[in-house]
Specification:
The complex is a heterodimer. By secondary structure, chain A is α+β, with helices and mostly antiparallel strands. Chain A has 20 helices and 43 strands. In chain A, the strands form 11 sheets. Chain A has a 7-stranded mixed sheet with strand order 30-34-35-39-38-37-36, with helices on both faces. In chain A, α19 packs antiparallel against α20 (about 780-800). Chain A is elongated, with a radius of gyration of 42 Å. In chain A, about 40% of the residues are buried. Chain B is rod-shaped. In chain B, α1 runs antiparallel to α2, α2 (about 20-35) packs antiparallel against α4 (about 55-85) and α5 crosses α10. By secondary structure, chain B is of the alpha+beta class. Chain B has helices at about 1-20, 20-35, 40-45, 55-85, 105-120, 135, 170-180, 220-235, 285-295, 310-315, 325, 330-335, and strands at about 125, 130-135, 155-160, 160-165, 185-190, 205-215, 240-245, 250-260, 275-285, 300-310. Chain B starts with a helix and ends with a helix. Chain B is about 40% helix and about 20% strand. In chain B, the strands form 2 sheets. Chain B has a 7-stranded mixed sheet, with helices on both faces. A 3-stranded antiparallel sheet of chain B has the order 2-4-3. The relative contact order of chain B is 0.10. Classes of the chains: A alpha+beta, B alpha+beta. At the A-B interface, α2, β2, α7, α10 and α12 of A face α5, β1, β2, β3 and β5 of B.
């Protein structure tokens, strides 16, 4: 909220520069976000006196003036027809920012520079009202009252020396939503008690309660309602001082009555409302809840739908205001208003908040009521407003405030322990130190036992209800920076330190393999994401339609990334992401957490060319065997041989073909080529290969406890075998036979060539394997290997119809 | 016959001596050392020699063949050495065969750096779900129903009482529910706020939460831990301050500021001319939070803190628009 330094100083005397103010108040917990020195606008403008006027020797319409600005008498060229010796004028020096340029059609501001005009140097400029931004008159210079002192700054002349602070008040500090509240905090800083504005009322003999009645039907929602009546007010614009100060704190002036209620709001923090007394049927105020479905037109001219939990202010017949939120159009102060009823009430904070939320209507009043106002302040605030209205309009103030306060609020007291205070903060304050710290912020405490104090909480501090709240106040006023900064070593390492280790290892591995890590926001476009099928988790109040569902997979978000990059000419991609995917169980209740599932996944994606363009490297597009190779390498790295691929179609929603991956016999994910329909719909190039695996599956298969195996002592022998087989036969059939028959000497089999063409015929293919044989206990003899090879060749022939090629 | 062997040797020597280029020596090799060369012919011719002479001739021929081969090899390699500069065709300015270069997302880098520091101080790493209930996100954290503190965090809802967590603090509750004190954990992850998309907000961002609960934990120690962290992460010369603040789940609550490292505290656009940067919200765990998880709040005290990662990353890498972080433009990613 905006706080005026000038206003604050009416309650507490302090000398702090704006920078000191920002620093000290922030360190007390009121964060000053920015400040504006109003005088800065008028830097380099002073009041001067024209002492001499001579016609410019080289120009008919110009005058060379000697102007005395107190310390200096300088020559200034002036083009205004009305300039004359003896005038008090506003002088702008070089460097001044002139708010309106008289010679610019739009009147844009400009910075005054030193210039020679027709051969004579001008040391400044005498300004017109228009140039100063003070009015519309541009016909000549602004001539001030002859009594004005020369040499004073324009800011001082205009009384624009205030500093306006923007302070961020946290939701617990409702008491600081006013100038008096902030002044109290400053009082604590400078060790001064604040002076509240004196209220002197000139009441007539007519008692208020003869002219108005108040009845609270809902004492829970409205614990207190105070009011006053003024007669024969004259509605008019407020005087300039009132308008100026309201504008400076961001309030738009309306008329003297409304402006006074706003002034008192900004001063005391207590919201008031003024009704047109003559429009109140039976001159009666009844506080009660609304009837469901009733409609009500508020001050802003909008029709509001009411519900039975909303508290209304009514007259004998109809609602006249939504309590604590906004008044009604039917009893609004207008130019024809003669008599006024001022309301100053205390409403239940939670109820005001619910009403304000339901109506989607937040006002200065509701903002304060929902944070909690001071129940003891209602009469003080209404008296203050009555006094000001009387001063401004000369109205008759009826005798006495009406104060409906059925159940007096008890004084809040809180017990606090010295030992606890010290042990939470980490200091060693004595009881009397704590008591005197609390006294600074008007928390009066007394000792009740060796370790305990009893704190009387003032009614404006509704945030203090228990011991910890008192401890916080002690810490805050003592000063966080006065609390020692220390650590005590304690060695207690938990077991979960490595929870993220797998993800980190996978990241490092993939980065080493040339993958770029991407991160996607899980909120996705509903239409695009519905391509994934599955019940999607939808957002009730999306920020935008592009962020309306939670991702059910990492593939579609990654394809968006592909699109962005392809649009920017980057087509060779190697991407990975580790992130959560979300799903929902539609058989469960939507408002239960059990209906929602989250799973952490790893996505890999390759697209475009296999390697960067370079001399000596054959370019080719990536294919399914590239992604398969990446998946195999990754899984071998982490899970050794605890995984396998499942070659039947498993999940065809996103990719085709789609190859399943099992780790330790459990389904862990899939890889394949992005389906053409999906690529087309998302407008990305084809030939994108993807893999999505579950992180927890990889973790389950991750072999971290590795034991050394002795390296082979005897050499291995490599033999190649090539077969001609039916072109449709999967090579794995042959590979499996070789592995099976090759036991126990066969160590590995690698397919190193595959060919179909002239030499094989169209219906056949040639497959060539490199077989490695090794024994742990001896050097193998040729005969042993030949024997095994012979068996393999026979088996491949019998089981796969493979003919050995020689 | 022996003479003939000697003649051949002589001729071979002459021819080899005359040879000046690699092709010359190759011609010599073809003439003398191939299967149909002169030395091979001599081997053929001893078949017709008297049996008693054969061993002697064979030995002489073998010696000749060995001699010729050695001489040839010597000559060839000396020619190769001397002619090398003339025939060089190795252009070492040709670029090496490139490998694709991987990169870690800048947000991950910042998270890992921060995690590493706290792991070093004995914190464990815990995670929790992003879809949360009102209870975990607000209720258990002492956000009273209908309290304006709830306005501090605009919420994205999934269903009645189900929402996307607005901070990582619900993980505190989950950790304390499954574990008794002492607890010392950091909790990184995505959080969500219902805020308009702009250069400064993306409705989703990362936080790292910290929690330490034990007997005798004080605000003073909270300061100590965060200062130790800040000095490691931002540099040992930074200045810092703690300001009172408000969070429903901690009391006393604080904001930690450090001197703006872009302007050194002199004031710039980034620190809004204050010279300070807000880096962390913190405080002593509120007794009501301990009540929610069934901890004895008389016996234990604790502190908690939380920091936003994106802001840190933007400042550290000099990025001025948060949206570029999640466009995942490879030209951007490769810079890190």
């Amino acid at each position: 909220m905006k706080i005026s330094q000038y206003w604050l100083k009416q309650f507490v005397d302090f000398k702090l520069s704006p920078m000191q103010f920002v620093e000290k108040l922030s360190m007390l917990g009121l964060e000053v976000e920015s400040f504006e020195e109003l005088a800065r606008k008028y830097d380099n403008f002073v009041i001067g006196e024209v002492v001499e006027c001579v016609k410019h020797p080289n120009a008919d319409r110009l005058t060379v003036c000697k102007v005395n600005t107190g310390k200096l008498v300088q020559e200034i060229i002036c083009g205004a027809p009305n300039v004359a010796a003896g005038q008090k004028v506003v002088v702008a020096y070089v460097g001044a920012v002139i708010p309106n340029n008289q010679h610019d059609p739009e009147g844009k501001p400009f910075t005054l520079e030193r210039t020679k005009i027709r051969g004579i140097e001008s040391n400044g400029m005498i300004c017109s009202e228009y140039e100063l931004g003070l009015g519309k008159d541009a016909s000549g210079i602004l001539v001030l009252d002859s009594k004005v002192k020369i040499g004073i700054s324009l800011a001082k002349y205009l009384n624009q020396t205030d500093v306006i602070y923007e302070i961020g008040i946290t939701p617990n500090r409702a008491d600081c939503l006013s100038h008096i509240g902030v002044a109290r905090e400053i009082g604590a800083l400078v060790n001064k008690k604040i002076k509240l504005p004196p209220v002197k009322l000139k009441e007539s003999k007519t008692p208020t309660n003869k002219f108005a009645k108040i009845e609270i039907l809902d004492k829970e929602r409205c614990p207190r309602y105070s009011a006053r009546v003024l007669r024969n007010v004259k509605i008019a614009p407020s005087p300039k001082w009132l308008q100026d100060i309201l504008i400076s704190v961001g309030v738009r002036p309306i008329n003297n009555i409304v402006d006074v209620t706003n002034y008192v709001l900004m001063e005391t923090g207590h919201p008031l409302h003024a009704f047109d007394y003559d429009k109140l049927i039976d001159h009666k105020i009844i506080v009660k809840t609304a009837v469901d479905g009733d409609k009500f037109i508020t001050l802003d001219g909008k029709e509001r739908m009411l519900t039975s939990d909303m508290l209304m202010i009514c007259d004998a017949e109809k609602p006249i205001a939504i309590a604590g939120v906004m008044g009604g159009a039917n009893t609004e102060i207008s130019d024809s208003t003669v008599n006024v009823l001022l309301e100053s009430a205390y409403f239940n904070a939670k109820n005001i908040r619910r009403t304000s939320k339901k109506l989607d209507l937040s006002t200065e009043a509701s903002y304060r009521f929902e944070r909690g106002t001071d129940i003891n302040n209602t009469v003080i605030a209404v008296d203050r407003a009555a006094q000001l209205i009387q001063e401004l309009t000369g109205a008759e103030l009826l005798k006495g405030a009406i104060d409906a306060y059925p159940k007096k609020r008890k004084q809040v007291v809180v017990k606090a322990r010295v030992s606890r205070t010290n042990s939470v903060i980490g200091v060693s304050l004595t009881k009397s130190q704590i008591i005197s710290i609390l006294k600074k912020i008007e928390l009066h405490a007394k000792s009740i036992s060796k370790d305990e104090i009893l704190v009387n909480v003032p009614s404006f501090r509704n945030d203090i209800i228990e011991e910890i709240d008192v401890i916080e106040e002690v810490a805050r006023v003592y000063g966080y920076n006065n609390i020692e900064t220390k650590t005590h070593a304690s060695i207690d390492f938990s077991s979960n330190v490595r929870a993220e280790a797998l993800q980190n290892n996978i990241r490092e591995y993939l980065i080493g393999s040339g993958f770029n890590e991407i991160l996607s926001v899980s909120l996705q476009d509903e239409e695009a994401h519905s391509l994934a099928g599955k019940p999607l988790v939808k957002v009730l109040n999306p920020v935008s339609s592009e962020m309306a569902v939670l991702q059910s997979n990492l593939v579609l978000p990654a394809l968006r990334v592909v699109k962005h990059n392809q649009n920017h000419g980057v087509k060779d991609l190697r991407l990975f992401e580790i992130g959560n995917v979300f799903n929902m169980d539609v058989t469960k209740e939507k408002h239960l957490l059990e209906a929602y599932g989250e799973e952490e996944k790893l996505l890999m994606l390759i697209a475009g060319n296999i390697s960067p363009v370079s001399y000596g490297v054959n370019q080719r597009l990536v294919d399914i065997f590239d992604i398969k190779g990446e998946v195999s390498s990754l899984l071998t790295k982490f899970c050794l041989d605890n995984y396998r691929f499942i070659y039947y179609d498993n999940n065809k929603t996103l990719s085709e073909p789609s190859i399943g991956v099992e780790i330790n016999g459990v389904y862990a994910g899939f890889f394949g080529k992005v389906k053409k329909e999906i690529a087309d719909k998302l407008d990305v190039d084809e030939n994108i290969f993807i893999c999505e695996l579950s992180i927890s599956s990889i973790r389950d298969g991750w072999i971290t406890n590795r034991k050394f195996k002795a390296l082979p002592k005897f050499p291995s022998v490599i033999r190649d075998l090539a077969f001609t087989v039916d072109i449709k036969l999967p090579q794995i059939a042959i590979e499996d036979v070789i592995k099976q028959i090759g036991q126990p000497l066969l160590k590995s089999v690698v397919l190193f060539d595959m060919y179909s063409g002239n030499q094989t015929g169209d219906d056949k293919k040639s497959v060539a394997y490199s077989l490695e044989f090794q024994s742990p206990d001896r050097t193998l003899m040729d005969e042993e290997i030949d024997n095994t090879l012979k068996k393999i060749i026979e088996a491949v022939q019998n089981q796969c119809g493979g003919v050995l090629r020689s | 016959m022996l003479n003939k062997i000697e003649e051949t040797k002589q001729t071979f020597n002459d021819e080899l001596n005359k040879a000046e280029t690699l092709s010359d020596v190759e011609k010599v090799r073809i003439r003398f050392l191939t299967r149909s060369g002169e030395i091979a012919e001599l081997f053929n011719s001893i078949k017709t020699a008297a049996p008693s002479d054969k061993p002697l001739l064979g030995k002489a021929l073998n010696e000749l063949r060995q001699y010729a081969q050695e001489k040839f090899d010597q000559k060839k390699s000396s020619l190769e050495k001397s002619t090398q500069p003339k025939v060089t065709s190795l252009d070492i300015t040709i670029p090496g065969r490139p490998k694709p270069i991987g990169s870690k997302h800048p947000i991950t880098q910042v998270m890992e750096d921060i995690e590493r520091i706290f792991i070093g101080m004995g914190f464990s790493v815990e995670t929790g779900p992003e879809i949360e209930s009102d209870y975990y996100n607000f209720g258990a954290l002492n956000f009273a129903p209908d309290h304006p503190a709830r306005d501090m965090q605009d919420t994205i809802f999934i269903a009645n009482d189900i929402l996307l967590r607005t901070h990582t603090s619900p993980v505190q509750i989950r950790v304390m529910e499954k574990q008794s004190p002492p607890v010392r954990a950091i909790m990184p992850g995505w959080v969500y706020r219902n805020e308009a998309i702009s250069a400064r907000s993306l409705a989703a961002f990362h936080q790292i939460e910290g929690l330490y609960v034990d007997e005798g934990v004080t605000f003073s120690e909270l300061k100590g831990t965060l200062v130790a962290f800040a000095k490691q992460y931002y540099g040992s010369s930074i200045k810092y301050r703690f300001r009172p603040s408000f969070f429903p789940f901690t009391e006393p609550s604080a904001e930690m500021d450090i001197t703006c490292y872009l302007c050194g505290g002199n004031g710039c656009r980034i620190c809004k001319y204050s010279g300070w940067l807000e880096v962390c919200g913190a405080g002593m765990v509120h007794p009501h939070v301990f009540q929610s998880v069934g901890y004895d709040y008389e016996k234990y005290t604790g502190y908690a803190f939380g920091m936003g990662i994106e802001r840190t990353a933007l400042l550290r890498y000099g990025i001025d628009d948060i949206r570029i972080l999640y466009e995942n433009d490879v030209r951007f990613l490769k810079q890190f």
